[in-house]
């Protein structure tokens, strides 16, 4: 198994463990840290494993970080906010 996938799976496990803990700030500081580590890791996965595996890891990461993705899409005006 390529090393980038090992680190990607460890990132996913860590993200899920962080999501289990209660937080006053609704996990936003942890989300920023996960994004800072996860984006370069995602580039590494794409370079080492190709588009298909990279897309699968992208979907897995987006499922963990749902709200940052939602707010990014809203900011880009791809999704409309509920009125």
UniProtKB/TrEMBL annotation:
The chain crosses the membrane at residues 29-47, 52-73. It comes from the Bacteria. Pfam families: DUF2484. Keywords: Membrane, Transmembrane, Transmembrane helix. InterPro entries: DUF2484 (IPR018919). This is DUF2484 family protein. It comes from Halocynthiibacter halioticoli. The lineage of its organism: Bacteria, Pseudomonadati, Pseudomonadota, Alphaproteobacteria, Rhodobacterales.
